[in-house]
Design goal:
single chain, 151 residues, mainly alpha, Hypothetical Protein Yqey, Chain: A, domain1, Arc Repressor Mutant, subunit A, 2 domains, 7 helices, 75% helix
Length: 151
């Protein structure tokens, strides 16, 4: 089942059960997805792909985590709790991240595959990682490992 279908089904279920936080979060996700689809139209793309949707979800989680931390610093615990609840809902739709051992092995394989020997080759290594592992890859963690390996 595609992520788009999972969002729609999740929204219907949340509406039937009366889960207000889940309904508002999924509506927000669908609205953001529609915005990205509309932005992609001039490029001749009807709708963005699964990898772009996963990237959108990761950005939404990151944004909410930052907001939650700021709300806690400002003494607004109720707003931080709301952001944290949204994070939980969004993370349900993200693929399981690679564990550290698998990510380290994937980086080592990509470095060997591309024949990378210096930081100049980092772009090729990251492209190989993204092509092979796609949505399961956390680019931030992979980036740090590739830098350490090529340094």
């Amino acid at each position: 089942m595609t992520l788009r279908a999972r969002f729609t089904d999740g929204l219907k279920t949340a509406m039937k059960s009366g889960d207000a936080v889940r309904v508002s979060t999924l509506r927000m996700v669908l609205a953001r997805l529609k915005d990205l689809d509309i932005a992609a139209r001039p490029k001749g793309v009807e709708g963005i792909g699964e990898d772009e949707i996963v990237s959108m979800l990761r950005n939404m989680v990151k944004s909410r985590a930052e907001s939650s931390a700021l709300y806690l610093q400002g003494g607004r615990g109720e707003l931080a709790a709301r952001e944290d609840a949204e994070i939980v809902v969004i993370e349900e739709f993200l693929p399981a991240p690679m564990d550290d051992a698998a990510l380290t092995m994937a980086v080592a394989d990509a470095v060997a595959e591309t024949g990378a020997g210096s930081m100049k080759d980092m772009g090729r290594v990251m492209a190989a990682l993204k092509a092979r592992h796609g949505a399961a890859l956390d680019l931030g963690r992979a980036n740090a490992l590739v830098k350490a390996r090529l340094s």
